Amino acid sequence: MKKTILFLTLFALTFSAQSQNDSVEISLFGIQTGVLGVWVHNESKLSDEIALRSEVGLDAGLFGGSVFYDGGTGYLLIPTITLEPRWYYNLEKRASKSRNTAGNGGNFVSLKTSFLPDWFVISNYETKSQ
User: Fold this and answer.
1) Fewer CB atoms < 10 Å away: N or C end of the chain?
2) Which first-to-last residue range defines the signal peptide (predicted)?
3) Number of domains into which the chain is organized
4) Which comes out higher in pLDDT, residue 97 or 75?
């Protein structure tokens, strides 16, 4: 019985010793992939509650049908640059309730803006001019 109580006490102390950060992390990097693209992103701290997420990648698209390109089906990849300021409004509340805030894990409001430059297009069809 004493060993069980000692084990549970040590187990509880290890979890209570982990500190929660109640502000945005300084910098996060990552890679995202999906059915329609691949992106590399960075999220940088601007203040305790505000971060700027910047993203560079390739957006994908599918097209086809009898009207376009002689009835074939095609794909395309277009470069994309995205900037997204984020306001994390509940990190302190999450930390006070001992919830996970690692990796900026919390609710946020953002304004996402994307730019699709006309640098190049990767496709299985050649571009037709109109």
Assistant:
1) C
2) 1-19
3) 1
4) 75
